[in-house]
Write a structure and sequence with these properties.
globular, 469 residues, binds zinc ion, three-stranded parallel beta sheet, alpha/beta
């Protein structure tokens, strides 16, 4: 029967591509075989994708949109940003040269005149400079690996990342683009301390929370259909990281309507931030606080090490990346019992060279051993990609079935730190929208259906798969 249906459908694909209303796994397998990469991207763009549990505010901002917001005073609180385009104009200048390091107008005004001339206002960049500026915030060239990302792009981001108005607008822009590709829940990581207004006035974390909440209640944010809960991220290798963890617990516990968890990030190859360092701090915090989610980067490394198991000991129920999981047999067995969720970031791992190709990636083994895991984007603005790129990578590199793909989405919602009522609503909505999607794509001509989708693909899809719309 199965063979008969396959033959009938194969014949159908050559003609009208009419599909049966059988199990959607069968339908999906035929689509994988018969659609081009661009068509498959379009199909995956349209499918419901539940949640992205691992991404960094700033890193996930689409850089063209950021340029628009950063050069529009009506959207950025009246700020005018300046970016470094020259060096060596001043005698005795000790400012290290970093092209396109960006500062706020209030900082630029305090510089000596010769230093001011080393910067250009963002809104006065030539077309060539503008393109180079935007690309300087992306890993878009061969050879730009983790050093460019950690040591150049993040510092270059500079004042744009700490402007409260830019942050608020880009948060909504990010909700719009994720919402358009079927993501319904986000849990970005950010630091609520250190935001400033356009005149340089510091915004305390409680005020930041109030402004963020108000912005998320605006009609354009609500219209995205995307819910957002936040994680406070602590830079793990700094000398004051323990103090920052304590502050994060205090902040989350006082703002539980939006803030649901704590993360620790920063290069894991900097040993100063190793997980065991924080064991006493997290244990002490649990004497005082309950129900604060812990999702901590672990296993974003090249070598076998105990970071993942030590991070479980810290109390994390979600581990970010988990690239070295298969180097620790006991850990694999523990994780199979479902004690933690692994946040998989496929594009990130390739671009930051934690794998040189996907045959080295541990994701399919985790997925097919039943270790809870799901797909996320990490820093999609800096990769110039989106959630659909993660899905297309998973499908094309590891031949994910429809049920596996849907399971990744469902798992992400289940392991989110969303409050129980919201989580249940998101799960119900997800199940309903997946069912409706399956019904829609099980009938008629899928190629005609593709024409109804209006996907947005970015530079990563163009470079990797030649996809341009
Ligand atoms: Zn990350």
């Amino acid at each position: 029967m199965k063979l008969f249906r396959w033959i009938a459908l194969t014949a159908g694909i050559a003609g009208s591509l009419t599909l049966s209303a059988g199990g959607f796994d069968d339908t999906f397998s035929r689509l994988k075989t018969n659609l081009s990469k661009a068509e498959l991207y379009t199909f995956l763009y349209a499918m419901p994708k539940a949640a992205d549990l691992h991404h960094h505010s700033g890193g996930c901002w689409q850089m063209d949109s950021l340029f628009q917001v950063a050069t529009n005073p009506a959207r950025n609180g009246g700020n005018r940003f300046y970016t470094r385009v020259r060096a060596g104009l001043c005698d005795g200048d000790t400012n290290a040269w970093r092209q396109f390091q960006t500062i706020a107008g209030y900082t630029w005004k305090t510089l000596p005149e010769c230093q001011q001339k080393e910067y250009a206002a963002l809104d006065e960049l030539t077309a060539v400079q503008r393109e180079a500026f935007i690309n300087s915030l992306r890993l878009d060239k061969p050879g730009e690996g983790r050093n460019e990302f950690f040591e150049e792009i993040w510092p270059r981001f500079g004042a744009m990342g700490r402007s409260l108005e830019v942050f608020l607008e880009m948060t909504v822009e990010t909700m719009k683009r994720y919402g358009a590709e079927g993501v319904r829940y986000l849990e970005p990581q950010t630091i609520p301390l250190g935001f400033v207004l356009a005149d340089g006035t510091a915004v305390d974390p409680d005020e930041m929370h109030r402004r963020l909440k108000a912005r998320l209640e605006q009609p354009d944010a609500r219209a995205t259909g995307v819910e957002v809960r936040w994680q406070v991220v602590v830079l793990r290798f700094t000398p004051i990281a323990e103090k920052k963890i304590e502050e994060a617990y205090d902040f989350v516990s006082r703002h539980r309507d939006l803030w649901v968890g704590i993360n620790m990030a920063g290069r894991e190859d900097n040993d100063k931030g190793h997980p065991r360092r924080f064991l006493e701090t997290y244990r002490r915090m649990r004497h005082k606080y309950s129900d604060v989610g812990l999702a901590i980067h672990a296993g974003e490394v090249d070598e076998p090490n105990p970071h993942m198991r030590d991070t479980l000991l810290l109390g994390a129920t979600r581990l970010g990346h988990g690239n070295n999981v298969l180097t620790d047999d006991d850990l694999v067995l523990h994780l199979r019992s479902g004690i933690a969720f692994v946040e998989i970031n496929l594009v990130s791992n390739l671009l930051l060279e934690y794998v040189t190709n996907y045959s080295q990636h541990h994701f399919p083994e985790m997925l097919r051993l039943g270790i809870p895991c799901g797909l996320s984007t990490d820093d999609s603005g800096m990769w110039d990609s989106g959630m659909t790129d993660e899905y297309l990578t998973a499908v094309t590199e590891f031949n994910l079935t429809w049920d596996e793909l849907v399971g990744c989405g469902r798992n992400s919602l289940k392991w989110s730190f969303a409050e129980p009522g919201l989580k249940q609503r998101l799960l119900d909505d997800y199940d309903r929208s997946v069912k409706a999607f399956e019904e829609k794509w099980s009938t008629g001509d899928p190629k005609a259906r593709l024409g109804e989708v209006h996907p947005v693909a970015y530079g990563y899809a163009a470079r990797r798969w030649g996809i341009k719309y």
